[in-house]
Amino acid sequence: MAITKVWIEDGCIVCNACETTCPEVFTVTEETCKIRAEVRLDGQQTPNLEERSALSGTIGKELADQIQEAAEGCPVEVIKFEKI
Ligand code: SF4
Q: How many C-beta atoms lie closer than 10 Å to residue 24's C-beta?
């Protein structure tokens, strides 16, 4: 399994759980969670809700389990992803 895209829907409560689980991909700011620029093809650091940028390189394969774990652990279920 590989995750191709990950994004954050509206409603993040900035609890930090996802960053604890997978700090390579998620960074939590004062207002919301964002997908780190370093792991995105478009190089932007946003929730990736509008852009839906793909993950770069082999990140989506290497960190698939951690991303899925972070999504399952999000208390408000706003972490969404696509996989192949
Ligand atoms: S786990 Fe969910 S609610 Fe918590 S910071 Fe991450 S995206 Fe936001």
A: 14
Neighbours of 50 (CB within 10 A): 9
* Residue 74: closest CA among 5, 21, 35, 4: 21
Nearest ligand 1 atom, CA 32 = 8
In this prediction, residue 21 carries a pLDDT of 98
Residues with CB under 6 A from ligand 1: 8, 12-18, 28, 33, 74-76, 78-79
3-47 pLDDT, tens digit each: 999 999 999 999 999 999 999 999 999 999 999 999 999 999 999
Annotation: CATH topology of 3-83: Alpha-Beta Plaits (3.30.70)
